[in-house]
Amino acid sequence: MGIWVDTQFGKDSIPATIGNLTNLVLLHLHSNNLVGTIPPEFGKLELLEVLDLNTNQLHGQVPDSIAELSNLQTLSVFDNNFSGSIPKDLGKKSLNLSYVGFSNNSFSGELPEGLCSGLALERISVNRNNFSGALPLCLRNCSKLSRVRLDDNQFSGNVSDAFGVHLNLVFITLSGNKFTGELSSQWGKCENIAYIAMSSNKISGAVPAELGNLKNLQVLQLNSNELTGEIPQSLGKLTKLQYLDLSTNKMNGSIPKELCDCKSLLSLSLRQKSFSDEIPSELGNLGQFQIMLDLSSNSISGTIPTTLCLLTSLQILDLSSNALSGALPHCLGGFSNNLSWSSAEVTQNMHEEQYSYFLTIEILQKLRSYSSPRDVLANVCEFVPTFCNHAWLSLCPVPCLNDG
Predict the structure, then answer these.
(1) What 3-state DSSP class applies to 252?
(2) Do β-strands 353-358 and 348-350 pair in parallel, antiparallel, or remain unpaired?
């Protein structure tokens, strides 16, 4: 017999007597402003399959008795004030455990070694806690995994050793941890994946060319790691890709024109220190760009392609801190109001001095009648006289000061 308990408590604690309802199968107490702790008596609910306590004000630790629930399939305690470690035996008896939700608490320590002993785990969300250490070895063999959120913790270990080939995986974010190692070519076999975020770790090596096989991939965030090598040309095969961020790594080479075949791309960030060559004129063919094109802080040379004028829906254009030269395209001052700010650094040798300036879109609109860096520098003081006493002109209003 199944009993569904879904009530509305008002900043009250969970009655320990619920532990006497030994025929209970489903217990939903989410979003009830509950306070206090989880009664250890819950360990007596031998038939319990679903324990949902999310979005309350519960605190303390998850009692060890929860690990005794052999029929447990769903354990959801996210958005509370829990702390301490997860019961070390959780999962060893709950062989049908398919979902664990620990997000947005203050849990610490390692995830239980037997969390996925039954290999039934499909969804795991433990983001925004203080978990540390290596991931459970059994995670690698969980072929049913579809959604993984481990971001904003202190997890460590080799990122590719922790995972295998997960054909059902759709979403994974490991950002904001201490994962190391290289990205295995095996990631290219997770054919249904749509979202990969592994930013802000210590992942090294090259970006595997096999990622170009992920035909359903929409988001690829690998920024703020220690990746090396060039951008694989194969990424141009990702026709559903909308967001690509490879910024703040140690990659080099040129920007492959094959990226311009990503016809769904909305945002591209390649802020590095070592990309070189010229801006591919083919980027102008990506008229669907709506959010950001960031090629700043590289060694890109040549001129700004006039084809960028075709990106009329772009909100952020950042070409600063490169070795660009020549004239500013007229159109930069005539973009639509969708462009929140534009930062275009242009360098030109004039009397053995190198001038660099950042131009916001508002100023560009006023200066669009000037076609060369020399003309801009000669007339810019009309609009921002306070900056004209320094050879390096930094013309950026408050909204973009934090964008570097």
Answers:
(1) coil
(2) antiparallel
Give strand pairing partners of 155: 133
Distance, in Å, from the CA atom of 370 to the CA atom of 360, rounded to the nearest integer, reads 15
Q: What is the CA radius of gyration of the chain?
A: 27
63 to each of 21, 37, 278, how far by Cα in Å? 18, 9, 59
Establish how many alpha carbons lie within 13 A of residue 109's alpha carbon, considering only the half-sphere containing its beta carbon.
13
**pLDDT tens per residue, range 354-399:** 333 334 444 444 444 444 444 544 554 444 443 333 332 333 332 3
Q: Residue 379 CB: number of other CB atoms within 10 A? A: 13
Residue 66: φ, ψ to 5°: -65, -30
In the predicted model, what is the mean pLDDT of residues 145-159? 97
The residues with which 47 forms a beta bridge, in sequence order, are: none
CB atoms within 10 A of CB 7: 8
Residue 395 in contact with residue 358, Cβ under 8 Å?
Answer: yes
Amino acid making up residue 400: C
Coil, helix or strand for 204? strand
CA distances from 361 to 20, 285, 329, 369, 372 (A): 67, 22, 13, 14, 16
More confident residue, 149 or 328: 149
pLDDT tens figures, 281-332: 999 888 888 888 999 999 999 999 999 888 888 888 888 889 888 887 877 6
pLDDT at 251 over 50: yes
3-state class (DSSP) for residue 159: coil
Paired tokens of 224:
């703020």
In contact, 264 and 241? CB cutoff 8 Å: yes
Residue 8 neighbours by CB distance under 10 Å: 9
SS3 97: coil
What is the separation of C-alpha 64 from the centre of its chain, rounded to a whole number of angstroms? Answer: 33
| Cβ-count burial 231-240 (b if 16+ within 10 Å, e if not) | bbebbbbbee
Cβ–Cβ under 8 Å, residues 121 and 97: yes
Give dist(CA 150, CA 176) in Å, integer.
9
Residues in the chain: 404
Helix (H) or strand (E) holding 254: strand 253-254
SS3 210: helix
* 38, 57, 359, 387 from 19: Cα distances, Å: 11, 20, 66, 71
The pLDDT assigned to 320 comes to 86
